[in-house]
Amino acid sequence: MGCGGTLRGAVMEDPFGAVPRPDIVRVAAWLLVTALILAGLYLGREVLIPLAVAFLISFALSPLVVWLGRRGLPRIPSVILVMAAVVSIFLSLGFLVGSQVRLLAVQLPMYQSTVRAKIDHLGESMKGPGIFDGAMDMIDTVQKEVEKAVAQNEEGMPQTRVQVVPTPESPFHTAIAWLLPVLTPAATAGIVLIFVFLALLDRGDLRDRLIRILGGSLHRSTDAMEEASSRISKYLLMQLVVNMTYAIPMALGLWLIGVPGWVLWGTLAAVMRFIPYLGPMLSALFPITLAFAVDPGWNMVLLTVALIVVLELVSSNIVEPVLYGTSTGLSTLSLIAAATFWTALWGPVGLVLSTPLTVCLLVIGRNLPQLQFLDTLLGSTPVLDVPTRIYQRLIADDPEEAIEIASNAINDNSVPEFYNLYGVEVLRQASHDFLTHARAEHRLRVVSGMDVILDDLRDEYPAPELSSGLPRVACIGGKWETDNVACEMLVHALAFHDIFAVQRPAGVLTARYLDKLDLSGIEIVCLSYFSREPERSASAFCRRLHHRWPRLRIVLALWNPPKNFADSEVYSRVGADAVVASMDEAVQRIEQLLSPEVARQRKIAPRPENDVDRVATLRKTGVLDGHAREELDALAARAAEVFDVEFAVITAIDAEQELIIGQSIELPGDISREGSEMITHSRVDAVCDHVVSSDETLVIRDAQRDPRFADNPVIGLWKTRFYAGAPLRTSEGMVLGALCLLDTSPRELTDNEVELLNEFAADVMHTITAYQPSLPETLDEGSIPTRS
C-alpha cells in the first residue's frame, strides 16, 4: 500500500494505451536522494550520534519536566532539578560500580588456581582413546619435524643480536597519551548533557521547528510529533522497567548464590539489555564466567545459569508482553533489520539507538503520504485485512492456509459474525475481479476454495440442533457462482439462530426451472446477488416467484449494494418484501418476517438489574428539573462540532421515559414536563436504553440497515441514519443516560473517536453531578420528585 502510494507518481501512462512504465528519471532521483542520506548519516556520525543520544534522553526526561511544571515549578528550575537528579544517580551508580570493579581486580589473582584446577580436571576427564587420537598424533609429528628443520637451519647461520632502544618521550606526550582516551568520551558525554539541557529547555521551540520542517498539514505534523514522542517515551519507560525487573532479581540472586560483584553484574544487565538481542547474552556471560572461577565445584555455576535462564524466561514471556504491548508498533523482522542497519552505520551506539530511531521513521511513514512505504515495511500492523488474506490464499490455490486464517478469525468471533464481517467481503472482492483482473483459473480456485472452506467450517462448527424439522427458508443464487456461495453461508448462519434454511440450485428463469424448483413448505425465499445492477434480473425473478407461489415472501440480498440503494422506491418496484445488504441484516430480517413478536421484543432493551436504584440516583441529581439545561446544551453543541455531525443530544432514561436534557439544535418532539421544556419519548422506543442496558458505547453505522432500529419512531422523526451513544456513568457504575451523536448520513467512528466520545460523556456526567440538591423525594417507580 505504502510503496504503491510512493511510486504512483513515478509511473507514466503510455500514450498508445500500453502497460504503464516507470519514470526512470524519478526513480533515479529517489535512489540518489537515498544514497545521499545514507552517506550523510555515515560521514556525519561523529555529530549525529551525540545529537541522537541527547534527543533520546530528552524524550525520556521530558515527562518528568512536564510533571514538575504542572506542579507549579518554572521551566528552568524543573530542567535543572531533573538533570541534577539524573547526573547524581549516574555518578552514584558509577561510584558503586567502580568500587566493585576495584574489589574484583584485587580478588581475580586469587581465582587463578581454581580456574587452572578446573581446566586440568576437564582435560583429564577427556583423555583416553578416541576417534581423533590418530589425527592428533599426526599433527604432533608434523609439528616436531617442522621445529627440527628450523633448528637445523639456525645452527648453520651466524646469529646477530639486534636490540631496539625506544626514544624517550617527553612528559607532555605521555600525559597526552594517557588523557586522550579519557577526554574523548568525557567530551562526548559533556556535549550530550548540553544538548539534553537545551532540548528540555527549548522543547517548544524545537517542536515548532520540526513541525515547520515536516510542512504540509498542521494537523498531520502535530499528530506525527505527538505519536513519536508518545511511542518513544513509552518504549524507553517500559524498557527501563523491564530492565530493572530483570536486574534487581538478578543482583539479589547472585548475592544469595555468593557470586562476587553482584551489584556490578546487576547494573551491567540493566544497561546491556538496552542492546537488542545481543545485550542479554553478553550480560549473562560475565557472572557465569566469574562463578566458574570462584567455586572449586560446579554448584555456583549451575545455580547462576539456572537463575539467568529463569529470569530470561519470565522477562521474555511474562514481563515484556505485558509491559510493552504495542508501544513501538514495529514488527520483529523490522527490529532485526533496523538493528543490523544502524549498527552498520553507527557501530555499537547505533545498535542501542536502532529501535527509537526506527520508531521515528515509522511515525514519519504513517503521517507523510510520500513515505507511507515505511509504515508498510516497518509496522507491526497487518498490511492485509482478513478477507484480503483469505482471498489471496484462494487465488494462490492454498485453501488450507485460508482455512487456518478463517479459523483464527472465528476464534475471536462467532460463525455468523465471521460470515458477516469477512465471508461476504471475500466474495465481494472476488465478484469485483470476476470480469476485470481474474483469469479462468483464478475464478475456479476461488469458488472451489470457498467450497472447501465452508465444508470445513460446517464440520468444525456444526449448527445446534434445530427445533423445526421442516425448512422454512430457501436461499437461491441469482446469477454468479459467488451468489450460490453466499447462499451456503446464509443457510449456515440461519441455523445458529434456530432457523431451518435450505439452498436451492440457481438456474435460467424458464418454466422448466420453476417446475423443478421445490418450494413446498417454504415461507421465505432469499435471492442472492453480487451484481451491481441486479434490478432487471431480480424483478423478473420476484415476479415469477409471486406468480407461482403468491403467499411467498421474498428477501432480496444485494451484497454489492448500488449507489441508489438508499432510495427505497427504486427497489419497491422489484417486488421484494425486504432488501438487505449484509449477512447480519439478512438474518435479522428473515427472523423478523418469521417471528414478528420475537423480533419486536428484541427491539426493546432489557432493563438492568439495578434499574430502581439507577432511577433513584438519576432523580437525586436534580437534572430532570432542567437546572443544568444551558450547560448541557453547550456540551451537546460542542460535541456536535467536534465530531462534525448534524446534531448531538444528551438523554436521561427515567423509569418509563427518555428525556432530552441537552441538545445542540431545536428538535421536533413532544414536550410533556412543565417548566423543564424537555422533549420526551417512550422508554420502549429509546435507542439510548440499549446503551443503559449494555453499559457500553453503541455505534450504529446506518440505522436503515439495522432491523432493530430501521422502524424506530424517534429515528424516523429525526431522519437520522448514524447513531453513536456513550453511557453517562456515575462513579458507582450506574448508567443514567447517554451522550448521543446523530447524523443524516451513514458514517463510522474510529477507536480513537470512540474513546474521545467516552471522555466527553465523563465531562457531561461531571456537569450533571456537580449540582446535588437536597430534595425530599419519592422513589416509587414512575414518580417525580418535587420540592418541599
TrEMBL record:
It is a multi-pass membrane protein. It holds the Pfam family GAF. InterPro entries: AI-2E-like, GAF, GAF-like_dom_sf. It is found in: Membrane. Keywords: Membrane, Transmembrane, Transmembrane helix. Residues 627-778 form the GAF domain. Gene3D superfamilies: 3.30.450.40. GO terms for cellular component: membrane. It comes from the Bacteria. The keyword Transmembrane helix applies. The chain crosses the membrane at residues 24-43, 49-68, 80-101, 175-201, 235-257, 277-294, 301-319, 339-364. PANTHER family: GAF DOMAIN-CONTAINING PROTEIN, SLR1143 PROTEIN. Belongs to the autoinducer-2 exporter (AI-2E) (TC 2.A.86) family. This is AI-2E family transporter.
